[in-house]
């Protein structure tokens, strides 16, 4: 059973919206994201969405998206859903369970993540991907812990 996410006023003195926009900036600043055409949106506490393009550059030899793309997008969207509830520290993934449900072909796909439980040290979030055909392509659940890295120390986490 899910816990209730903290009230947005609990997040930061500048408010939840500012924290969400800085997390979106952090996502865009990550060098790995130069490899993937993607856009993140944090719509509220515990919720994130990444729209991304699946193209031939991410295909395996049989002509569908390689598992690295599934994992990257599911981990990222679950991470940002969880980190939307933590305004002082960068979270780290400690475990991620992924289930492939169908191949992804070329086109736009959407990964959606939501926080499930945990508030203090360990947070759990789940995620799924809807492929360009409108069908679920994968789902997963991640476990995240607070690191010793202050979000404010990261150049990409800016106002």
Automatic annotation (TrEMBL):
Domain of life of the native organism: Bacteria
Matches recorded under Pfam families: 4HBT (PF03061)
InterPro entries named in the record: HotDog_dom_sf (IPR029069), Thioestr_dom (IPR006683)
Domain Thioesterase, first and last residues per copy: 63-137
Name of protein: PaaI family thioesterase
Species of provenance: Sphingomonas daechungensis
């Amino acid at each position: 059973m899910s816990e209730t996410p903290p009230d947005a006023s609990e997040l930061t003195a500048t408010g939840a919206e500012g924290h969400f926009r800085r997390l979106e900036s952090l996502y865009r600043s990550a060098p790995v994201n130069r490899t993937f055409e993607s856009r993140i949106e944090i719509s509220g506490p515990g919720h994130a969405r990444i729209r991304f393009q699946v193209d031939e550059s991410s295909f395996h030899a049989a002509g569908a998206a390689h598992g690295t793309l599934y994992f990257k997008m599911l981990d990222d969207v679950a991470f940002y859903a969880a980190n939307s509830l933590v305004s002082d520290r960068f979270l780290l993934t400690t475990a991620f369970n992924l289930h492939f449900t169908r191949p992804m072909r070329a086109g736009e796909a959407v990964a959606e993540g939501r926080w499930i439980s945990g508030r203090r040290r360990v947070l759990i979030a789940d995620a799924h991907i809807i492929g360009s055909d409108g069908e679920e392509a994968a789902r997963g659940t991640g476990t995240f812990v607070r690191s010793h890295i202050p979000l404010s120390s990261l150049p990409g986490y800016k106002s």
